[in-house]
Amino acid sequence: MFVEVHIEQEKRLENEGLPCGIVTGIAGPVWIEFTFNGEAGYAGNTPMNDRRDALVAASKFVSELKKLPPHFSKSAVATVGKLYVEPNGVNVIPGKVTLYVDVRDTFNQSRNELVVAIISLGKTVAHKHHVEITYEENLRVAATPIAKETQQFLA
Fold this sequence. Notes:
Oligomer: single chain
Strand order of the largest sheet: 4-6-2-7
Number of strands: 8
């Protein structure tokens, strides 16, 4: 058996005043690329009620995304860390936004269910904001639970 000593990448142990912990599972990531396609236009003469702003739709998606993981698992997370806005002009209504969602959990089933919910959220938001949406899964790695025997051996 091999054991890797690792520095915690979050503050859970510190917040609980614990000097160390034993990993119960390794989270498996799924990366999904979403593209919201609206209609670019000149900001100065396009009325607010006549816009198909891809960034407004993408922003709504991002703000609603954070609410989903707790409904599936205590260890599930979803993050948008990369986003491209086109044409990216100060006075231009964004016509296209591409963003990347990193979904992780230590349990494959709940992670996979969360992925389905995230895709559904994207479709719902796009429909409500009158933009089109496409998505593509770019990565899927299985979560790895740590055997109870191994956890007990290390305790």
